[in-house]
Amino acid sequence: MKITDFDISRQAFVYGAIHMLSNHLQILGDRIDPTISSKQWFLLVVVSKFKEAPPNVSDVADVLCTSRQNVKKMANILEKRGFLNMKTDKNDLRSTQLFLTEKCSNYFKSREQKETEYIERIFSGIDNNALELLCNELKKLLENTDKLLENDINAES
User: Each residue of 29-51: pLDDT tens digit?
Assistant: First the structure.
């Protein structure tokens, strides 16, 4: 039996499907290359998107919606494997900045073709209009969940 067989509301279907997609994407992403997990890969991608200055652990944790401890744990593993370096921020000794290594850049270049094929296969059969709509609706869901998280944090204070 699949979730598509259940008699549930559209909202319940979308909620369940997002969880299932998350699991599927993690499993499939982990199969692309056994060198790093899909979560580690995503952490490296997030670090690479900070152009002005290297991010610190908290910056990356905020983007990934996870704890600093989780980011630090993954960063330690990635540092041991040579994909990034962690350095104490000269301006704030409590802050640890994350720097990608040359090994990481070379690794991403070597994966580029596999990643392109992977993404194309996942989005196969979805035209640009549907993809645009999906992007817009996912942004709304992310905004809604961000607001809920902020309200929970404010309620705890």
Answer: 999 888 999 999 999 999 999 99
**Is 50 in a helix, a strand, or coil?**
coil
Same domain, 17 and 48: no
Predicted TM-score of the model (pTM): 0.84
Rounded Cα distance, 96 and 58, in Å: 8
Number of domains the chain contains? 2
Rounded Cα distance between 86 and 63, Å, is: 18
User: What residues have CB less than 8 Å from 16, skipping those under 6 apart?
Assistant: 3, 8
Structure confidence by residue, pLDDT tens digits, 55-114: 999 999 999 989 999 999 999 999 999 999 999 988 888 899 999 999 999 999 999 999
**Are residues 77 and 2 part of one domain?**
no
Based on the fold, state whether residues 107 and 132 are members of the same structural domain: yes
3-state secondary structure of 103: helix
108 and 39 fall within a common domain: yes
* Shared domain check, 66 and 6: no
